[in-house]
Please model this.
Amino acid sequence: MNVSSALQIGKTDSFEEEREVLRKAFLEREGLHKTPLIPLPVDASKRRYFRLPKALLMDAPPPHEKTTPFQLIAELLNEVGLSVPLIYAADHTHGFMLIEDFGEIPYRKALQEGVCEKLLYGETLKALIHLHRRMDKNTRGLSSYDLDLFLGNATLFIDWYDLPFSDEAKSDFKNVWEEVYRSQPHLPQSLLLKDVMIDNLLWLPSRLGFNRCGFIDFQDAVWGPLSYDLVSLLEDARREISLGFAQEMLEIYFNAFPDLSRQDFWASYSLWGAQRCTRILGVFSRLAKRDGKSQYLEHLPRLWAYLERDLQHPTLHPVRQWFDTYANEKLRRGQL
Model:
């Protein structure tokens, strides 16, 4: 083991010890210091969850994670009428929250147990329809998914994917994405939850209608085009979803908004799908290289397939041309 690795392990141990002390202090403040904690599996972020008998403990260490946005968006979505965890207690300074436990039936498990795929996705679509009907104006002053955020997220691909892009390629990359962003159709906007996908949805069979769909991991929510969460759901980075099934599910949405221009919708859906896939290609590559989480690389071929499908839309010709010029076959196969 080299000195750098030893120092990193030392930092990790020290960090874990500090978090444990802070966790105990928070639980003691809430009268739960004698309650056993069951750690839940970790995912891509630095957040961790522990199950208590009647709640979940969220451990979201600052400055990497922030609990205040989670509470603000949770309260807003609860007012709107979606199923999101209730907040029982919070220590935003140290990054701890006690939240409602939605149980142990994430969508992935529900599918494995035989719950109908169309039922699960249909109720999610209906929940998003309800959200978009109730939040058609940004009355809360939510941050917008503006050009800077759009380009910054897309650029994660340039920063982390396994190719030393030239300065010309980097410059062209930003230029083509800015071009298609500025030329996108003016689709209606709403609150977008940012990461609506199979592992962030829980099935709540004791509730009724679309409230059987429980949402988590929405702390990065912003204001933006209503197509975003739909493409997030139906171009799931971690689960294969056919274009045919996506189109079938989107008919539920189109029927709810008959005045929505399908031409504008598909242009927006393709744009945000392509940008999202590009961002996640960078994110998953970063998780593998920086954090040693190589399991995320198995999803890269799926993301490339979604991306190539989205780039077929004629409005994305500049971006498609960039990938044809600078992304070789090794990249397109999702190999690092």
User: Anything to note?
Assistant: The longest strand covers residues 87-91. The radius of gyration is 21 Å. The chain is about 50% helix and 10% strand.
